[in-house]
Specification:
Layout: H1 2-12, H2 43-68, H3 106-109, H4 123-134, H5 146-156, H6 168-184, H7 186-189, H8 231-240, H9 250-264, H10 268-271, H11 302-305
Helix pairs in contact: 5-6, 8-9
Length: 310
Amino acid sequence: MAAVVGAGVAALVGQRPRVKRCSVRGFSDSDESGRGSDGRVPRGDRLGVGRRTLRLEQLREKAEREALAFQPVSVDESKCLALLYNHGRGRMQCDKLRAPGQKYCGKHCKGRAHGDVRGPIPAEKLQLFMDKALKPEKASSQWYARHLMWACALEENPDLENLQDLDIGNYEHCLKKMNLLHRQTIQRFRGRLERGLGVRDVADRGVDKFGSERERYNGTGGGRVFKWYSRAVFNNYLARMQTSEAACSERECMVALAAVSDELKKYPMVQSSLVPYAGPQCYPHLDPESSDYRVDVRQGNEGKRSESVQ
């Protein structure tokens, strides 16, 4: 009661009432830097900073997890680390070499609209990728077979050893050439290919030397390219090129398969024990981990008779 009366008297005489200062445990008088008179940051403030830092780390980890769905499975550290738009699918690394001393090519040193192949993707671009992923896929009009893709690739680069060595631009050009080739020779491929089952666009490329599942497609029943095959003769031709089933390039494989089929044409008696088109018809048929593996195909008395043509 006395305190109230005292405050009223002070107000009447134009004086401010005295307010008793109090302290709270864990806090002390501090300067503008937030440190107390003892030079230490109050414990409550320290806890707040820690929580904010943890929250930021959690948000960053979430952004990185969401980005992984639109980033390539594997990264070539010798190439530019920028992520490409790739028709809204992402999952593609720039195939240009890095600028000296940089992580990116000359173009992407100036900016990367869609982020990097690792780490968070800019929020607007991530939402763009997500929206694109929710839209239903349109039926592809692309015609494709692995052996045709290899033939087109050789026209682009006669010194090519493996399909995976093609850059993005040449790969896309080869896909366009295959559509044109199919239109020009539609009778030749009637019933042998199914539209849209193979590679639809460059986004379907794989990193394995045999390619992605779509890149391995070679037509109905595995394709009909090399009519006659013998593993013994095949290995004989590979040995002449100083390579083997496991180590050969796509070029060496296709050259050897063509040579085997041509060689066996000369021996009708050998052909009588063989099944036409039963052997490998393209490079992925050499993959021992694939269900399309055909290198060790057994064909009657092939082993005994093929020795005479080596």
